[in-house]
Design brief:
The chain is an all-beta fold. It is built from no helices and 11 strands. The strands form 2 sheets. Strands 2, 4, 5, 6, 9, 10 and 11 form a 7-stranded mixed β-sheet that branches. It has a 4-stranded antiparallel β-sheet with strand order 1-3-8-7, with no helix packed on it. The radius of gyration is 13 Å and the shape is globular.
Length: 126
């Protein structure tokens, strides 16, 4: 089993910044892809960003490109999401996810990740 623990959420004004982190423990893998998804009230869970820890390849949703930066540490099996220029529409519960078998074409699909964190609230006030 793998445990994922998110940290760093909170309340910020529009235009501000927040940094989310996710640490994995347990039966982790050097082949992990780790991703962030978010879910706003009444909406489906949507892809935000992902990173392949071994090699650092990154993927971003169009809605966050140029504002969010994902980074990872393969040795520690953790990742962070630096969120800048936050907008009210970024308000959601953010979930960390991880999987050791994903291919590039699958990283944006929530249902293909095996492991999930509990989620952390990010609220952007306008």
């Amino acid at each position: 089993q793998v445990q994922l623990v998110e940290s760093g959420g909170g309340l910020v004004q529009a235009g501000g910044s927040l940094r989310l982190s996710c640490a994995a423990s347990g039966r982790t893998s050097t082949r992990f892809v780790m991703g962030w998804f978010r879910q706003a009230p009444g909406k489906d869970r949507e892809f935000v960003a992902a990173i392949k820890l071994n090699g650092g390849i990154q993927w971003y949703a169009d809605s966050v490109k140029g504002r969010f930066v994902i980074s990872g540490d393969n040795a520690k099996t953790m990742m962070s999401l630096q969120m800048n220029s936050l907008k009210s529409e970024d308000t959601a519960v953010y979930y960390c996810a991880a999987d050791g078998r994903l291919i590039a074409s699958s990283v944006m699909t929530a249902g293909l990740y095996d492991y999930w964190g509990q989620g952390i609230q990010v609220t952007v006030s306008s």
